[in-house]
Structure formats: C-alpha cells, structure tokens
Amino acid sequence: MHRVGERGPVVAIAKGRVQEELVPLWQAAGFRWRLAAGSRQLWFAPNGDEPGAIIVRGPDVPVLVAQGVADLGVVGQDLLREYPDWEVLQVASLPVARCRVVLAGQRPEPPVGPFRVASKYRRITAEYLRQRQWLAEIVPLSGSLELAPLIGLAPYIVDIVETGQTLREHHLVEIETILPSEAQLIANPAHWRSKPEVVAVRDRLTAATTATGTGKEGAHA
Ligand code: PRP
After folding, report:
1. Residue nearest ligand 1's atom 5 by CA
2. What is the mean pLDDT of residues 149-165?
3. Which of 75, 102, 207, 219 is the most buried (most CB within 10 A)?
4. What contacts 122, CB < 8 A, 6 or more positions away?
5. What is the pLDDT of residues 113-131, one digit of tens each?
6. 220 domain residue, yes or no
7. Both 160 and 143 in a single domain?
8. How far, in Å, is the centroid of ligand 1 from the Cα of 161?
9. Does residue 124 belong to any structural domain of this protein?
C-alpha cells in the first residue's frame, strides 16, 4: 500500500458539498477525478502530477493539514471560523460551496428578550450573540437544524443556507447573514515553503478558477 508521507502532494477534501462541487474545478485544472459518485473510497494516492486526495469530514481537514498528513486542504470558510485552532495558511479562495451562515426563525424580526438558538456552529453563534449583546442559550445539534423550531426545541437556528430551499420547506426565514462562506484552499505552512509542487497545485486550481470565470463574484451575502 502507498504510504501517506512518502509521495507527491496530497489534498484533504471535505466530504459532501465541497467534494461534490470541487469536481469541475479539479477537472478544469487538468486533474483526473477518480472519485466516482457514491464511492466510499477515502484515500487516493498521488499519480504522476495529479495530487492524491483524502476524503474526510470538514472539521478534520485543518487537522490533517496542520499535522502535515495532507499538504493542502479544501474546506469551507465557515468551518475554519468554527475550528480556528489549527496552524494552517489560507492560500486561495475557491468558487465552491458558496453559502452563508445565517440566523433564521419563523418570523423575519430579530429576537427580543432571552431566547434559545440551535446550531452546530457553537463558536460562531457565541461570537455573534456577544457582538449583538443578546442573551441566549445555544442548543448544540449536529444536523437537521431546521427541525428545532418545528418541534419546540428552539425558536431560532444558526445554520448554512445555499438556495434557501430547506428553510422554505420548514417555514423558516432568514433574519440576518452572519458570515458569507466559500471553500478555502489551506496549506501546511512548512510544506508550503519547502515544496514547490504544493504551490503548483494551488496555481493550477486558481488558473482553472480564472479560466472558467467562476471566481469573479466572490461569496454571495
Ligand atoms: C445544509 C444546511 C441546510 C442545507 C441548506 O445541510 O444544514 O440543511 O444545507 O441548503 P439549501 O439552502 O440549499 O436548502 P447539508 O446538506 O450541507 O448537510 P449537513 O446538515 O450535514 O450540514
């Protein structure tokens, strides 16, 4: 088996939305995408000048990059803000997984008085509540946030919105955008300085962004 560590560049990629939306950009950069849709394979060895890939959950991407197991990572800005404790460099924004972290509820008016808010973004939510000087209890959930107001768990949620469809289907509306987000290419600082082939992967991905015209608008708010 090919051992991670003695090889060409390796990119840790966040499973799900980032992984799916990265495909066209990856291909436009001239890399072959070996990740078949629905495949459960999590490790792809580097092959010639094509980087290897490790597929992990979003919060784990900065961990692998900081530890040097991956040279680069692709992960949403939202997760970098939520898990900021890892020493990584942000070396490019990629036009992938564009969304926004929002406060949502059953009515568009901001909350009045102490309230409960459900979120998987505990740090972002706590920071936001502090800035607004709102008194609230954060109910930690790891998914299906839109259920919280329906089942009486919390009248407000902080979650990501892309098309707004999930909110609409649960009769929720956006009250305020907290953070626009899109995928970030991050790098291990030591590898970034010492391995030109790692910088070359960034250059090919950003050139593909320019060539496909997908990088012009930035994250939408
Ligand atoms: C996110 C989020 C919403 C949905 C919003 O979930 O939690 O449920 O996407 O997208 P929309 O505005 O286009 O409807 P995701 O599918 O990423 O999975 P997660 O709940 O595991 O984060």
Report:
1. 161
2. 97
3. 75
4. 82, 138, 140
5. 999 999 999 999 999 999 9
6. no
7. yes
8. 7
9. yes
Query: Is 4 a domain residue?
Result: no
Q: How far is the CA of 160 from the centre of ligand 1 (A)?
A: 6
| Ligand 1 pocket list (CB less than 6 A) | 16-17, 143, 145-146, 159-166
Provide the domain limits for residue 41: 10-98+182-212
Looking at the structure of the chain, the number of domains it has is: 2
**Extended strands (E) in 3-114:** 10-14, 43-44, 52-56, 72-76, 89-93, 99-105
**Nearest atom (ligand 1) to Cα of 159:** 7
Long-range residue pairs from 65-70, CB within 8 A, at least 24 positions apart, any chain: 65/12, 65/186, 65/187, 65/188, 66/188, 68/188, 68/190, 68/191, 69/4, 69/5, 69/10, 69/12, 70/10, 70/11, 70/12, 70/188
CATH code: domain of residue 205: 3.40.190.10
20 and 72, same domain (yes or no)? yes
Residue nearest to atom 8 of ligand 1 (CA): 166
> Could you tell me the pTM of the whole model?
0.91
Same domain, 86 and 146: no
Question: How many CB atoms lie under 10 A from the CB of residue 34?
Answer: 14
Q: In the predicted model, what is the mean pLDDT of residues 41-55?
A: 89
